[in-house]
């Protein structure tokens, strides 16, 4: 006899004031007071990552109820995309409005895990706003897409502290979504969706009609 599915109950949750109150609404830059806008968001079971218009990444640890801050050196620019990953180490990738991409390898208190914060930079391939990021499940591959249609593959060696990046695909319109699994990268742009086979470096379009 087939079991009867339990009814779906909708719940309304209040705003995360404990998180929002830990992020300033304004910061002082010289004589100017600058409003802080929240520009990017990603979550998993361990963290809530929030990007801001002042180039600051706010990372809230859900187990310790602690907020930490990470930023880019140099120019203060808006964060446009963040992507978390929990594998052997906790990683967060961050993209900005000018095309900068950085990976933060987070500190863990667990035995055998990373004990020092490290940062990896995707050097100078993107020249425009980052619109999508996608991890491989093991954290060794990161794909980044921008609003000019460029997709960059970055190979990370966390043990050696090395990040090697290369341009793998260039589309005529903005990248809006990336997802990676089993050597296949799913790419959505403003005009089409395609599968990029990373081993063969071949492309297969999903559907035949362009998006309007």
In brief, what are we looking at here?
This protein has 1 helix and 18 strands. It is mostly beta strands. The strands form 5 sheets. Strands 3-4-5-6 form a 4-stranded antiparallel beta sheet, with no helix packed on it.
Assigned CATH superfamily of the domain at 33-174: YVTN repeat-like/Quinoprotein amine dehydrogenase
**SS element count, helices:** 1
Number of E-type strands? 18
Q: What is the CATH topology assignment of the domain at 33-174?
A: Methylamine Dehydrogenase, Chain H
Strand order of the largest sheet: 3-4-5-6
Protein name: TCPR2 protein
Organism: Steatornis caripensis (Oilbird)
Pfam families: WD40
Structural notes for this entry:
With 212 residues, the protein is mainly beta. The protein has a domain at 33-174: YVTN repeat-like/Quinoprotein amine dehydrogenase (Methylamine Dehydrogenase, Chain H, 7 Propeller). It has 1 helix and 18 strands. It has a 4-stranded antiparallel beta sheet with strand order 3-4-5-6, with no helix packed on it. A 4-stranded antiparallel beta sheet has the order 7-8-9-10, with no helix packed on it. A 4-stranded antiparallel beta sheet has the order 11-12-13-14, with no helix packed on it. The protein starts with 16 loop residues before the first helix and ends in a 6-residue tail after the last strand. The model has no long low-confidence stretch (mean pLDDT 89).
């Amino acid at each position: 006899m087939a079991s009867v599915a339990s009814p779906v109950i909708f719940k309304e949750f209040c705003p995360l004031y404990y998180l929002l109150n830990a992020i300033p609404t304004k910061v002082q830059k010289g004589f100017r007071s600058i409003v802080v806008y929240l520009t990017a968001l990603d979550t998993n079971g361990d963290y809530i990552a929030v990007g801001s218009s002042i180039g600051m990444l706010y990372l809230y640890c859900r187990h310790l109820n602690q907020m930490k801050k990470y930023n880019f050196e140099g120019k203060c620019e808006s964060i446009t995309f963040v992507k978390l990953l929990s594998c052997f180490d906790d990683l967060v990738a961050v993209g900005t409005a000018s095309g900068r991409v950085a990976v933060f390898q987070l500190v863990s208190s667990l035995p055998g895990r990373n004990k020092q914060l490290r940062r990896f930079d995707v050097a100078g391939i993107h020249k425009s706003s980052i619109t999508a990021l996608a991890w491989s499940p093991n954290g060794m591959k990161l794909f980044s897409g921008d609003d000019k249609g460029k997709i960059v593959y970055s190979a990370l060696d966390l043990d050696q502290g090395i990040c090697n990046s290369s341009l793998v695909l260039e589309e005529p319109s903005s990248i809006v979504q990336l997802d990676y699994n089993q050597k296949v990268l799913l790419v959505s742009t403003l005009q089409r969706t395609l599968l990029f086979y990373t081993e063969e470096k071949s492309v297969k379009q999903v559907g035949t009609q362009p998006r309007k």
